[in-house]
Design goal:
Shape: globular
Oligomer: single chain
Strand content: 15-25%
Largest sheet: 6 strands, antiparallel
Structural class: alpha+beta
Radius of gyration: 30 Å
Number of strands: 24
Number of helices: 18
């Protein structure tokens, strides 16, 4: 009850989304625990929808809230037990002796790379789905039509655990049927072609139809970052990089045995020998001029069908120089950025193939083959023990933060509309990623689960772009019209605050204006009403009327002599969109665009703020990278971030970006550049301002230190929404 596998932030989030959905959501397909007031489709929560929905229905019959951890952990364990059963029966159907099938099933299930997903990606840890599909595919080869529906149904159900299962199984199954009929050409007819098409395409098309009918959001990111980053490598698949003896190999040839961040796809020594033996068999057939693909056995069909899935896991053909552009034509496939996970299929298939081969060697009279077979089994067992030890050390010690959730006595949840954590965190839009502090994430989720109040924060995937902008507008500098306000009701917002981590001025304003409720376990709690929020906005607007500030005008004489002050409105540059004035600076982000003008003089012992307004109308602009380079103590220094990390305000389709440069980083060599590799994106910035942090600067009638004023002066009255 007090332990969760992994126990890290990802694990906590994925358990929270499942638990909240099971206990508090009214809709089966919509999750309301985060991204308030909009919520999210369950398929984008990583909460194992098919299981969280089942627990939700069960909770309506039986009170399971106090037993969710127990049910969750045993659900993961029974998944492995079921996977071992399917592997055992597959091996039996392929002619493996009962005792070897038992040993092989246990070793395969414990060596499988999905165990690494227990670090937090629980939905990807279900190790019964792929063996179940392999088992059903064998039944199809024997029974034909009677099993066809399950070859469509299993990937669909797998997609409701995690969409990766949907694609990898559909690709594998379609390829397996193609090879089966191609190697037995007398079986090729219209019916067999239809079966191939149904197995390969029907699950994906049906899942797409399901999502289009149940998901109203139309502005999710079409090309998330990481497709070619989180892939498998030859070393991560064929070498024991994650095992203790992998460290020896890495020390032997440093850097050669590279593994991606996803990593951990090693197939095992037995499988390597099986592959080598299989390749030798193919070579022997070619030498003897035998048909390699005539009347293939089931294990051979599986092995050949898994190769295209493995090649995709390795990033082929997209990693070939000059071929990355092909990604733009893959449609929904771009959503699967952790493509290394597709190698899961190859792991199961190649180990099953190897055990069939070992069984054959044991049954043969040649003594040396029997010795080799038993020796390989012993080595596989040793590797399995080493691997499970590694898993235990890295995933089994996490405490369950949600066990016996406690809500402070001074909080009456019925009074509040939602929970706003500060520092605010928003992860999942693929465009904006706020600098969240880890200390606030789990306490806020714990409070949400205990109170049944939704979070205004987000830690999901592929969230709506427009909803994201609305949410960030609410928690950043409060000047312009806040679109989110129209979607809220009149109840107060409950703030949970980590006081040691709040640094943004806009968030400090919220805390200072809100009513304190108390503190507990290092967290502070406040009540924020709509009237209090509007009070902040009016105070910010009134600050714009201060005429004592330096006024920046087009005449450069105004800033003459202030070498640490620089402004460029880009009014002389043609553009299709500007924040204010006639022009703006537009460029493609694969170019290197410098923000610091030549000859700029950095002030002595004072922070410098580099700010500009960024057009965020289109997606994939806010994740443009900021490269801050300098020479510090004779050594080159680089700080890499994204422009969204420096977000201060949003006004319609424009975002205020403020980059803080500390004195220790400032010298004549310091450069700040905007750039990002990958797909080319048009970037437009306007109103570039570089100033010492102590100097407030006003552009006549419009800005104070770049804060946009949404009011105009008409006589003696200030009015809202007059435009620009």
């Amino acid at each position: 009850m007090d332990q969760l596998p992994g126990g890290g932030e990802d694990g906590a989030k994925n358990f929270y989304t499942l638990a909240y959905h099971a206990q508090h959501d009214d809709s089966s397909l919509w999750f309301d625990g985060m991204n308030y007031p909009y919520g999210e489709h369950v398929s984008y929560t990583d909460n194992q929808p098919i299981f969280s929905i089942a627990l939700q229905w069960l909770n309506k019959i039986l009170p399971i809230s106090d037993h969710l951890t127990f049910l969750f952990v045993w659900m993961m364990m029974l998944s492995s037990l079921l996977g071992a059963f399917f592997i055992f029966d597959i091996l039996k159907k392929l002619g493996v002796s009962a005792w070897l099938a038992i040993i092989g099933a246990v070793l395969i299930i414990f060596l499988n790379p999905q165990w690494l997903r227990l670090s937090g990606h629980y939905s990807l840890a279900h190790s019964f789905i792929i063996p179940w599909y392999l088992w059903m595919l064998l039944n199809y080869f024997s029974n034909g039509n009677r099993s066809l529906i399950f070859l469509i149904l299993i990937p669909l159900l797998g997609g409701l655990v995690h969409p990766y299962f949907l694609v990898m199984l559909a690709l594998f199954g379609g390829t397996a049927l193609f090879i089966q009929y191609w190697s037995n050409r007398d079986l090729i007819n219209l019916k067999s072609i239809m079966h191939i098409a149904l197995v390969a395409l029907a699950p994906i098309l049906l899942f797409q139809l399901f999502m289009s009918l149940t998901d109203p959001v139309l502005d999710r990111s079409a090309s998330p970052y990481g497709f070619l980053v989180y892939r498998a490598t030859l070393s991560s698949v064929f070498l024991p990089v994650s095992l203790p003896h992998g460290a020896f190999l890495d020390n032997l040839i440093p850097g050669w045995f590279r593994q991606s961040e996803e990593g951990g796809f090693y197939i095992g020594l037995l499988a390597l020998v099986g592959i080598a033996a299989g390749l030798l068999g193919i070579v022997r057939k070619l030498v003897n001029r035998d048909s390699v693909f005539h009347s293939l056995g089931r294990s051979h069909i599986f092995l050949l069908a898994s190769i295209p899935v493995l090649l995709l896991a390795l990033g082929l053909p997209f990693i070939i120089i000059g071929q990355s552009y092909l990604l733009e034509y893959t449609g929904p496939l771009q959503q699967f950025r952790g493509i290394g996970r597709f190698s899961f299929v190859f792991f199961f298939v190649v180990n099953i193939y190897a055990l069939v081969l070992v069984n054959k060697w044991i049954q043969e009279s040649t003594q040396w083959k029997r010795i080799l077979a038993f020796g390989l089994l012993v080595l596989m067992a040793i590797e399995t023990v080493a691997y499970t030890t590694y898993i235990a050390e890295h995933t089994s010690s996490g405490s369950n933060a949600f066990h016996n959730s406690h809500v402070p006595d001074f909080i009456d949840a019925s009074l509040y509309e939602a929970i706003l954590p500060l520092p605010y965190y928003h992860i999942g839009s693929e465009n904006f990623r706020t600098n969240h502090n880890h200390s606030i994430v789990v306490p806020s989720m714990k409070l949400s689960l205990g109170t049944a109040l939704p979070l205004m924060s987000v830690q999901l995937s592929r969230t709506s772009y427009q909803q994201t902008k609305r949410s960030l507008q609410f928690t950043n500098h409060h000047l312009s019209e806040i679109s989110l306000l129209s979607d809220l009701n009149s109840d107060p917002i409950l703030l949970i605050v980590d006081p040691q981590s709040v640094s943004k001025k806009s968030e400090r304003q919220l805390i200072q204006t809100a009513s304190s409720l108390g503190q507990e376990n290092g967290m502070e709690f406040y009540s924020l009403t709509l009237d209090q929020f509007l009070q902040i906005k009016m105070e910010n607007l009134e600050a714009l009327l201060d005429d004592s500030l330096l006024v920046l005008v087009a005449d450069p004489e105004v800033i003459k002599g202030r070498s640490s002050l620089y402004f460029d409105g880009f009014d002389d540059l043609p553009t299709t969109s500007s924040f204010i004035g006639k022009g703006a600076l537009s460029f493609q982000r694969r170019e290197w665009t410098s923000l610091i003008p030549e000859g700029y003089t950095w002030p002595v012992s004072e922070d410098v703020i580099v700010s500009f307004w960024l057009n965020i109308k289109e997606q994939n602009v806010a994740n443009t990278q900021v490269w801050m380079e300098s020479v510090v103590d004779g050594e080159a220094s680089l700080e890499l971030s994204e422009v969204c990390d420096h977000l201060q305000a949003i006004s319609e389709d424009w975002a205020l970006i403020e980059i803080n440069v500390v004195p220790s980083f400032q010298n004549p060599s310091t450069q700040i550049k905007l750039h990002r590799d990958g797909p080319n994106v048009d970037v437009t910035i306007d109103e570039l301002l570089i100033r010492p942090s102590s100097l407030n600067v006003k552009r006549s009638g419009m800005f104070v230190s770049h804060r946009w004023k949404t009011v105009c002066h008409a006589g003696s009255q200030w009015c809202e929404g007059c435009g620009r």
